[in-house]
């Protein structure tokens, strides 16, 4: 998809998590001129120095306020998701982007989820949400870098069971300067995107 998504342009966007991936996404949103808010478990005050570099484009908010956005990007450790989203009973069709990877620390091995995909677990934690898997296959320094190179645009993969949500996130990825590739439903795309999948850490360019 190469067109701008009207829904993503008009939607409020929140990045939940300010670690390496969350910080990388904030930098890319700022560079693309797309307003967003960012939150973490320590409170908005802890992000003041970080967000100062973005002027007014990226604002720090409390986590409870970030959870009200139209598009909420989960950019945190997989184990932190239950507590982070626990205050929302019904997501009422809003989009949740799962940018997490289910990893055992400190050995960085794939988590055993009893045969479930990590995004299936996340989906159960956000009832009523349209869940899209995205932003989890590039390492943070690569994700933070300019996606436009002399050889082409950096590729970002996504998948989800709701086609309308996939289109919205494809448009957002395009607006950020990346080349989006929609892998279809979670059953097809998530196994390829998750930590031990063939697309993990895959840094591809599309001319």
Summarize the structure in words.
The structure is a single chain. This protein is an alpha/beta fold. It has a single domain, classed as Rossmann fold (3-Layer(aba) Sandwich), CATH 3.40.50. Helix content is 32%, strand content 22%. The protein contains nine helices and twelve strands. Strands 1, 2, 3, 4, 5, 8, 9, 10, 11 and 12 form a ten-stranded mixed sheet that branches. The protein has a two-stranded antiparallel ribbon with strand order 6-7. β10, α8 and β11 form a beta-alpha-beta unit. The N terminus is likely disordered.
Write the layout of secondary structure elements.
Layout: H1 6-10, E1 13-16, H2 20-32, E2 36-39, H3 48-52, E3 58-60, H4 63-66, E4 71-74, H5 81-85, E5 95-98, E6 103-104, E7 109-110, H6 118-125, E8 130-134, H7 140-144, E9 148-149, E10 152-160, H8 163-175, E11 179-182, H9 186-193, E12 205-206
Parallel strand pairs: 1-2, 1-4, 2-3, 4-5, 5-8, 10-11
Antiparallel strand pairs: 6-7, 8-10, 9-10, 10-12
* Number of separate strands: 12
Which architecture name does CATH use?
3-Layer(aba) Sandwich
CATH class: Alpha Beta
Number of helices: 9
Radius of gyration: 16 Å
What would you call the shape? Answer: globular
String of helices and strands: HEHEHEHEHEEEHEHEEHEHE
Which structural category fits the helices and strands? Answer: alpha/beta
How much of the polypeptide forms β-strand, as a percent range?
A: 15-25%
- Overall mean pLDDT stands at 93
Number of structural units classed as domains: 1
User: What are the low-pLDDT stretches, counting only 5+ consecutive residues below 50?
Assistant: 1-6
Can you identify the CATH superfamily?
A: NAD(P)-binding Rossmann-like Domain
CATH topology: Rossmann fold
End-to-end CA span: 14 Å
> Helix fraction?
25-40%
Main β-sheet: number of strands, strand sense, barrel status?
10 strands, mixed
């Amino acid at each position: 998809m190469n067109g701008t998504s009207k829904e993503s342009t008009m939607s409020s966007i929140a990045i939940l998590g300010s670690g390496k991936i969350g910080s990388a996404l904030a930098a890319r949103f700022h560079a693309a001129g797309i307003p967003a808010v960012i939150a973490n478990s320590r409170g908005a005050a802890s992000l003041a120095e970080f967000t100062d570099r973005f002027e007014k484009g990226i604002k720090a908010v409390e986590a409870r306020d970030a959870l009200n956005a139209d598009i909420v990007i989960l950019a945190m450790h997989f184990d932190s998701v239950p507590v982070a989203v626990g205050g929302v009973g019904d997501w009422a069709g809003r989009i949740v982007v799962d940018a997490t990877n289910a990893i055992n620390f400190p050995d960085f091995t794939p988590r055993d989820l009893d045969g479930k995909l990590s995004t299936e677990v996340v989906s159960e934690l956000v009832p009523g949400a349209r869940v899209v898997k995205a932003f989890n296959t590039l390492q943070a320094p690569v994700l933070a870098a300019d996606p436009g190179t002399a050889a082409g645009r950096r590729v970002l993969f996504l998948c989800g069971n709701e086609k309308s949500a996939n289109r919205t996130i494809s448009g957002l990825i395009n607006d950020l300067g990346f080349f989006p590739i929609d892998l279809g439903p979670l059953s097809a795309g998530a196994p390829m995107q998750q930590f031990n999948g063939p697309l993990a850490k895959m840094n591809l360019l599309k001319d």
